[in-house]
Design a protein that fits this description.
This protein is α/β, with parallel strands linked by helices and 368 residues long. It folds into two domains: 171 residues, NAD(P)-binding Rossmann-like Domain (Rossmann fold, 3-Layer(aba) Sandwich); 167 residues, NAD(P)-binding Rossmann-like Domain (Rossmann fold). It is built from ten helices and 17 strands. It has an eight-stranded mixed β-sheet, with helices on both faces. A seven-stranded mixed β-sheet has the order 11-10-9-12-13-15-14, covered by helices on one side. Strands 7-8 form a two-stranded antiparallel sheet. The chain is globular, with a radius of gyration of 22 Å.
């Protein structure tokens, strides 16, 4: 098959979906790999590194499979031929219009952000691999912005106490943020609505912030809680926010707006020159004052919401993304060798990520 690697510059994303090492693996599998000129430059990969054909003109109509980090634009989608396969992050809940266009043009579209959260699928899970790096980078950026050091430091001139960091949301990003903050010597506490997160948080050496309320969430993902629980949660956070130097928020609910956890008046209780990094800003933000893509200051508190924090660490973000893509494409290729009709492939990962096929929207999650 002829495979195409899109240049993400139009999406202002520094990542690339296929890195040179993965490109060579695809060529070894017998595929023709065509990389759009400059696709990997922002991630530190030159065109010559790929050992593949370099496409100087974007004409998607001649390719069998298109790889992309981000959802394709309408213009790019309309270039595709009927039956072409698109494998990318699709963000289907925020871009439902793409589903109709894919179906109309009979495009076979796979959404890597719908990969099931199972042990078998973990090698293909772009949400986990990218969130892990986002959590790490959030701590590094917060440490850079904060006007003091993080670890406990004892000198002849006196002792500098360790900074205090609160992580809200103990999913993949949150746990990596906790681990990074602990390695840098900060005193770390974390909050999550999922009761199962307590053991994970404490295993990393952080204190779990518990809300004294009977309602709990035992699922893999966070869910919306009752008003009474949210009130108890707010009261608990209000009591500890004034002591924090850094707050990193990561709480998101798949397919919905991120929950507002830090209200404006709560932020006003924080220390002067403290820092909030809101990793949920793209889906609305966990802080009421967050402005996506901007760093603002309110009453001495810096609130940072990066347009795309992974743009600050694109080399490794691309490497992990490309490995996820290869693992999925390898599974798809093996499955198609046994059953050429993709719609008939009986595999939970392929079925879970397939959005459109043969002119129809076939994913139940996307129909909601």
């Amino acid at each position: 098959m002829k495979l195409y690697v899109l240049n993400e510059a139009d999406n202002t994303d520094n990542r690339v979906s296929i890195t040179p090492d993965i490109s060579k693996k695809l060529v070894a599998m017998g595929h023709g790999v065509f990389v759009e000129a400059g696709a990997g430059l922002a991630s530190g990969f030159k065109d010559d590194d790929y050992g593949s054909d370099i496409a100087t003109k974007r004409d998607l109509s001649v390719y069998d499979v298109v790889f992309s980090v981000n959802p394709l634009t309408t213009t790019d989608t309309k270039m595709l031929r009927a039956g072409a396969i698109v494998i990318s992050g699709q963000d289907p809940f925020n871009h439902p219009e793409n589903l109709d266009l894919f179906a109309q043009m009979k495009i076979t579209a796979f959404a890597l952000d719908l990969i099931p959260r199972t042990s078998r699928a973990q090698y293909m899970d772009i949400l986990s691999s990218q969130a892990s790096l986002a959590g790490y980078k959030a701590v590094i950026e917060a440490a850079h912005i904060l006007n003091r050091s993080l670890p406990l430091t004892m000198t002849t001139a006196g002792t500098i106490p360790a900074a205090k960091i609160l992580v809200i949301g103990a999913g993949v990003a949150g746990l990596q943020a906790i681990a990074t903050a602990r390695r840098l010597g900060a005193i770390v506490s974390a909050f999550d609505v999922r009761t199962a997160a307590k053991e994970q948080v404490e295993s990393l050496g952080a204190k779990f912030v518990e809300v004294e309320y009977t309602e709990s969430n035992d699922g893999v993902y966070a869910k919306e809680m009752s008003d009474a629980y949210r009130k108890a949660q707010e009261d608990k956070l209000r009591s500890i926010l004034p002591q924090q130097d850094i707050v990193i928020t990561t709480a998101q609910i798949p397919g919905k707006r991120a929950p507002v956890i830090l209200k404006a008046d709560m932020v006003m209780t924080m220390k002067h020159d403290s820092v909030i990094i809101d990793l949920a800003s793209k889906s609305g933000g966990n802080c009421e004052l967050t402005e996506h893509g901007k760093t603002i200051e309110k009453d001495g508190v810096k609130i940072c919401a990066f347009e795309n924090i992974l743009n600050l660490i694109p080399h490794d973000a691309s490497r992990l993304f490309a490995k996820n893509v290869f693992a999925f494409f390898d599974l798809l290729s093996q499955s198609m060798a046994k059953e050429p009709d993709i719609g008939e492939i009986d595999d939970e990962i392929i079925r879970g990520t397939l959005m459109t096929y043969n002119g129809n929207i076939v994913n139940e999650r996307c129909k909601l």
